[in-house]
Specification:
eight-stranded mixed sheet, disordered N terminus
């Protein structure tokens, strides 16, 4: 190809480029150029919700560059259109849609129910369609069905009681049994020969075999699935048995004029009628003489108390406590007897022998000190008490205590085994050293106590020795 031909081609291409530019400038100037539109886009994902039944929730869909397109809400599992833009399609008063006037749409679900759970879709009607999804998980708190099973059980002692508790909820709840009084639940097997005491028991059914009176009371069925609040149901277990009376004090003693209480412990189920009687058959009623009280101990036992006011002689004797229910009757006896009280504690006074001893003076070796005066029969002096006190110097006063304390009496005998038959008596007016003792003595032993007799003998002997000494010298 020659140069002319290459130059002609280059000029042709350059001419085409100029024509395109001119055409574009001409079209833009004429307003015939079309601007390329941006596609809608989601700015954030649709959230997931886990909510308790009865609460309110909403899904939020944020779209940019929506343009002329529309936003729709769809329930994915049922393919049902719920709303387009702000117009509701589904006839459900609990559903609604709001728009903030810019790029945010919200689907509101109020008072959420179990059938609201599932997947929700926010969709834009582009070609192809664009969408995003969020999940709603509805939880249901536990509930205990009120079926036809009774709210408790009744059985005779050694019988069986079956308690059943059916609970519902999402997720499925667990069922636990506990006693209302926090005591252990006793499970018995093989006719009661094997037993197991547990704080709680898991399962819908609680079976109590070989039931005893100690198993009586309220049992709680508690259902829980982690969704608050847990729920419970109360079952009452009753065990029927023949009445039983226990008398701790069968013999009671009380003094006349006092108030006294006597009592009996009663176990009975069903509830028994309780009464007090005299052993003569007389029924006792509440009055100014008797106060009758029943004090509950637990579901099947109580304490019967009879207070007798101002006890008199005719109140002593036997008393009977009686209990009767549909299964039988039983009686217990208490005997009231008189209590004889000892006199109050007294202290027998003792003469102040220590003072008397300190006042006693040593008799001088004079003739005047040997004088003794005669005393009438039965007359005592302080020095007599001192003499007796000297012999009993280390003894303690004798006291009388309560009637339970023994009383000890100590008898102190004088050292003389036999009193002398005579007493030497000296005449004060006679100062003669040669006075005869025979003339100055007389028999008077019957008038003096033993200790005085011994003292006079001692004085007389000393007197004779003094005379003998005077004669010699």
């Amino acid at each position: 190809m020659g140069p002319d031909s290459r130059g002609g081609g280059g000029r042709a291409v350059e001419g085409c480029r100029l024509l395109v530019v001119c055409a574009l400038l001409t079209a833009f100037a004429a307003g015939q150029m079309s601007v390329v539109e941006q596609e809608p886009e989601f700015l954030q994902p649709l959230e997931n919700h886990t909510v308790t039944q009865g609460r309110d929730i909403f899904f939020t869909c944020v779209v940019n560059h929506l343009g002329s397109y529309k936003v729709a809400w769809i329930k994915s599992d049922s393919k049902a259109i719920l709303a387009i833009h702000t117009h509701m399609v589904a006839h459900n008063p609990r559903l609604s849609v709001t728009h903030n006037g810019h790029n945010t749409w919200k689907l509101h679900v109020s008072n959420v129910q179990m059938n609201d759970s599932g997947t929700y879709m926010c969709q834009i009607n582009t070609d192809p369609m664009r969408s995003q999804m969020g999940n709603l998980d509805v939880k249901i708190p536990p509930d205990i069905l009120n079926d036809e099973s009774p709210d408790g059980g009744v059985a005779p002692e050694n019988g069986s009681v079956r308690l059943r508790c059916k609970a519902t909820g999402i997720p499925e709840p667990t069922v636990m049994w506990r006693r209302e009084d926090s005591k252990n639940i006793v499970l018995r097997y093989d006719g009661g020969r094997e037993r197991q005491a547990v704080r709680s028991y898991d399962g819908e059914t609680l079976l109590l075999n070989s039931i005893q009176r100690s198993d009586m009371g309220a049992y709680l069925c508690i259902a829980n699935n982690g969704i608050p609040p847990p729920v419970s149901k109360r079952f009452v277990v009753q065990v029927h048995f023949h009445p039983l009376i226990k008398v701790s004090n069968q013999l009671v003693a009380a003094p006349v004029g006092s108030n006294v209480d006597i009592g009996c412990d009663v176990e009975a189920s069903p509830k028994a009628m309780n009464s007090w009687y005299r052993d003569t058959g007389e029924k006792l009623l509440e009055s100014s003489k008797y106060e009758i009280v029943e004090i509950p101990i637990n579901d099947y036992s109580l304490h019967m108390n009879l207070k007798i006011l101002n006890v008199q002689k005719h109140d002593f004797g036997g008393y009977v406590c009686a209990s009767v229910n549909a299964l039988g009757k039983v009686e217990g006896g208490v005997r009231l007897q008189e209590l004889h009280l000892a006199p109050k504690t007294t202290i027998v006074p003792v003469s102040a022998r220590h003072d008397n001893k300190s006042r006693k003076k040593t008799a001088p070796h004079s003739k005047d000190s040997k004088r003794k005066r005669k005393r009438p029969k039965g007359e005592r002096r302080d020095d007599e008490e001192d003499a007796s006190g000297e012999e009993d110097e280390d003894s303690e006063p004798v006291t009388t205590g309560s009637w339970l304390e023994p009383r000890t009496v100590q008898t102190i005998m004088p050292s003389a085994s036999r009193p002398p038959s005579w007493i030497l008596h000296r005449n004060d007016a006679d100062n003669s050293a040669a006075a005869s003792p025979i003339n100055d003595c007389r028999i008077c032993s019957s008038r003096l106590p033993l200790w005085a007799t011994a003292l006079v003998v001692k004085v007389a002997v000393k007197h004779l020795l003094d005379i003998h000494y005077a004669v010699i010298f």
